[in-house]
Amino acid sequence: MPRYFFHIQDSHSQIDREGTELGSLEAQEEAVRLAGQMLRDGAPNFWKDGKWRLDVASPTGVPLFTLVVAAFEAPNVALHEQQGSPATSPAQGSRRGRRGVLTAGGSQRGKAPACT
Amino acid sequence: MVQAERPSDRPRLVCKLESIAELTAEERRAVLNLPMVIQRHHAGHDIVRDGDRPDECCLVLDGFACRYKLLPNGRRQIMSFHVPGDIPDLQSLHLAVMDHALGALAPTHVACIPHKDIRELTQRFPGLLHAFWRSTLIDAATHREWIVGLGQLDASERIAHLFCEMLLRYEAVGLAVGGAFKLPVTQAELADALGLSPVHVNRVVQDLRRRGLITWSSSTVTVLKRQELMAHALFDPTYLHQRGATSLTEGPAAR
Predict the structure, then answer these.
(1) Pairing state of beta strands A20-21 and A51-57?
(2) Smallest Cβ distance to B199: which of A17, A34, A40?
(3) Which H or E run contains A7?
(4) Contact B206 A18 (CB under 8 A)
(5) Mind telling me how many Å the CA of A51 is from chain B's nearest CA?
(6) Whole-prediction pTM value?
(7) Which residues of A touch B73 (CB under 8 A)?
(8) Integer Cα distance of A109 and B4 in angstroms
(9) With the CA atoms of B198, B200, B206 and B209 taken in that order, what torsion angle do they form, in degrees rounded to the nearest 10?
(10) Which residues partner with A104 through β-bridges?
(11) Which tens digit of pLDDT belongs to each residue from B122-164?
């Protein structure tokens, strides 16, 4: 079975030097599972950066696909307004609510991921 | 497959029982004289199958076993690991049908002890009845600890917690030397026990190694920094209810 490498970038970069042997379909599934588990464990720290990225590479270092989780602050939405209480001053109104998205992309070389 | 018994294996059960209960010389002798038939199982083979109605209990003599449950969709949950001295299907003495399977994860010898002989033994020696009862209660305590781990510990704490548990259980039967013990499992099997993806297990093990807490090669785990690993795992050994329990700092107590 081929060995896949799962590199993570959040508040610091974590290079996977050993890799894991997986079937080709498994690599995509395991990437999503890994993302879910790591986000669960890292929930308290996620908002420090509001972004998390997993790059999966082949044994020769060719990037195969990337999972990105990013949080965006919604503009002009006061946090306490979301919670149902009116804004009392413009200063408080500058605090923003946030939302997150989960996106996935293929390799930057434009090739389809080799493991599909 | 039936094989000749090695003389050194049998006392492991006495060792295990004495790690959780006090035995008299007579009780010790009675355990050593239990009739046993030795079976050898290959890695990956079932020792007892889900749904079986056993008329004997299996004492692990050497190797490594696990209790597991296979779901209809093929996914597997490993519920416990078993080291020499354990009788993982002791409950079959009172619960007629196996509600999970017992499998060998490495080449494993088990000694099959007929239920009728265990019943006879425990009638003659109520002290042994209590020791076996205590052993199944500690099994239940261990399952409770695993539930807490699966629900509340993060991946790194969960894996570190398992290493701490296996170290203390191996020490209880005299099979851990200098913090090193056999863990003949793949990362995929560890993942099935801890509710993690194999990739995640791999990452965490790399991290624990990098931090100098453990080494893991050729199926042997060595705990290098016992106190730090236990603190990292939020590990409290109370649930193992070992006599002369090891302290967090001092290593195995003299027996």
Answers:
(1) unpaired
(2) A34
(3) strand A3-9
(4) yes
(5) 19
(6) 0.84
(7) none
(8) 62
(9) -100
(10) A67
(11) 999 999 999 999 999 999 999 999 999 999 999 999 999 999 9
